Amino acid sequence: MIQRLHITICGTVQGIGFRPFVYKLAQTMNLPGWIENTPAGVLIEIEGRHQHLEKFILRLQQEKPDKAFIQSIEFSYLDPVGISGFQIQESQSTGKPTALILPDIATCPACLEEVFDPNNRRYLYPFTNCTNCGPRFSIIESLPYDRPNTAMKHFTQCSPCQQEYENPKDRRFHAQPNACSACGPHVELWNLAGDVLADHHHAIQQAVHHLKTGSIVAIKGIGGFQLMVDAQNEDAVQALRQRKHREEKPFALMLPTLETIQQLCSIEPLEERLLCSAEAPIVLLQQIKSPSTLKISASVAPDNPYLGVMLPYSPLHHILSKEANIPLVATSGNRSDEPICISEKEALSRLNQIADFLLVHNRPILRHVDDSIARIILDREQILRRSRGYAPLPVMLSSNIPGVLAVGGQLKNTIAITQGSNVFISQHIGDLETAEATHAFEQVIADFQNMYQIYPQKIISDLHPGYTSTKFAVDSKIPFTKIQHHYAHIASCMAENGLNGSALGICWDGTGLGTDGTIWGGEFLSITEDSFQRFASLRPFPLPGGAKSIKEPKRTAIGMLHQIFQEDLLRQTHLLPHQQFTASDLELLLQILKKKLNSPYTSSMGRLFDAVASIIGLCHEVHFEGQAAMKLEFITDPALTSQTYSLSFSSEIDWQSMILEIIQDQQQEFTLSKIATKFHNTLANLIVEAARQSGEQKIVLSGGCFQNRYLTEQAVEKLRSAGFQPYWHQRIPPNDGGISLGQIYAHLREPHHQNHLDE
Ligand code: ZN
Ligand code: ZN
Ligand code: FE
């Protein structure tokens, strides 16, 4: 199957023979395509078979000319258009060049060498950087990107630094954050009262000492504070969980080298590329079953076959990591779901119940940028949290769209703003459930408007009137449009896959408000030229206690079982969710359900996963979003069974027979793994059946449920072998982080914009 690989590169790739190099590489590999200069780098498209395109990406980075430096590379697999030959295209010089703000870039090999060279004047200097690497987005105050407009404006360069900065032949020519220990920022170790305990390299050594003796250290990094702890020290990891109120959600790790990661996880070439890339995200890797040389505490990622791992990405992290030479938990410096702290003042007030010490520095962080999360799925990259290394790089649409602001959803919020055909998507802001998060949300909006000097004439929000983001849109006094949540999910996936026209959109997620005022979440949407219709959805079931049931799958299970057994429910004492309630609580639940009090109906697939997890006794309460579904996913094993349950496709998909069969399997003491696998297989088959009945060829998969690897892989494979064209997320998260882009694309698809899209 021929695919088209679309590659956007930012960096030092012009005027150094990069285009001829790409031309030759494509010729050698017999891949048709083209390359073109852009204001910030180059754009490449090539066509070929997947394995050749993958090889091309890897060779592009391994064999590039010495002087070329890639600060950012993003690539997506798209439908082929039948390119022939290879062209070096003329640069597009029309229109004014867009001022791109680059993301923060991981330390380059040349800088790293200097940092660890005892004879270099930057030996062990934690703020070393050059034109090819270092902070960008997190230190820019305003454009143009010049030192007086950055957080470095307070540091006057010493004469050796100034000379580098002025010398066109130097790697630090016009490197805005250029600094050394004589003139630049420095680190300090603080106690919780803000007293300085040590400074410069001593501060790092002391911090390492505290980490090694079980303390929790808050470290001011690139885009905010991280909380670090020795990942091998069970007590310390437990303490961090307790103090951060983060019971079970997995922690990310920072490991000193690729070799250390290999002791814990298996790494494929594409995963290695991601780990070592300038973006340096947290990469989700399969854990090795029983690692022999290195072990980490079980509470780092309880019952999870994957580990979220990253390599050091700033000199401070490199020095600290090398000095410590142990696996470190590196999690966001916040209280549970708040945005991460970026200033010492914030850290002292918000992290004082969590951290024991603070490793800080005097280079201000101007905006919070979390660590990004990515993984490889179906031989492609998929970004699950788009932040450091990626934000605020744009997604390019095929047509211009005048200044529009999309405010996103409620959870995992991001916002987006348009300029020309670019959609600038913000860094991850988080769940808009706290005052801190709301404040951060408003700040990011103001920040993006100021940075890009775009003052939108239109705002797009979700339908849900209760979302913080929707309220902002309503209060803004700027004309606004509302876009249905699940349509926005599908539109985001279409936008990044370059799709227009009709398709079948399958959006499965937690909850979102539907156009009929009920809670949707298990949706099959008929995507038309300019809008959508609800093609099918799950048979609705009640959530007794409303929002409470999101934390307690056992409630959702009772709601679903009540639909089946009605008055008889109390007598079904063999059911596992029942055993989680006292007789009187159960009676109360039944009354609520009968009287339809505070028991909203939903067609949510996320809640169906919750109910099944509780019905088989796997999970009755969750500590974080998606936990029950993750538990179900993690026990699947395709080798166990290819069987399915009865679940037929219709406009209202009735889960009743499937649930009864699941109960039967559970009673007959089938292993939970087998039930979970059968359940996933059933859903993948449902997707194929829906595709058949829709009459569509293009099937678009989006929504939080498609973070489920097994479900996504099964669905894509089955769709492909049935002759359909499946599309899934690559650069934009399948979760609510993608809603802002989807809102913009859905708005663009509306009738009055249609002629633009067809151009
Ligand atoms: Zn560098
Ligand atoms: Zn200096
Ligand atoms: Fe959603």
Characterize the structure shown:
With 759 residues, the protein is of the alpha/beta class. The chain has four domains: 2-88, Alpha-Beta Plaits, CATH 3.30.70; 187-372, DHBP synthase; 392-483 and 738-752, Nucleotidyltransferase, domain 5; 506-728, Nucleotidyltransferase, domain 5 (2-Layer Sandwich). The protein is 33% helix and 20% strand. The protein contains 23 helices and 30 strands. An eleven-stranded mixed beta sheet has the order 7-6-14-8-9-13-10-12-11-15-16, sandwiched between helices. Strands 17-20-19-18-21-22 form a six-stranded mixed beta sheet, sandwiched between helices. Helix 5 crosses helix 9 (315-324), helix 15 (553-565) packs across helix 17 and helix 17 packs across helix 18. The longest helix is centred in the C-terminal third of the chain and has 23 residues, at 672-694. It is globular. It starts with a strand and ends with a helix. Bound molecules: zinc ion (ZN) (2 copies) and fe (iii) ion (FE). Fe (iii) ion binds at residues 485, 489, 509, 512, 703-704, 736.
Number of helices: 23
Mean pLDDT: 95
How many beta strands in the DSSP annotation? 30
The main sheet orders its strands as 7-6-14-8-9-13-10-12-11-15-16
Report Rg: 26 Å
Q: What is the count of distinct domains? A: 4
- What do we call the CATH homologous superfamily of the largest domain? ATPase, nucleotide binding domain
CATH topology of the largest domain: Nucleotidyltransferase, domain 5
Structural class: alpha/beta
**Separation of termini?**
27 Å
CATH C-level category of the largest domain:
Alpha Beta
Residue share in helix: 25-40%
Strand % is 15-25%
Bound molecules: zinc ion, fe (iii) ion
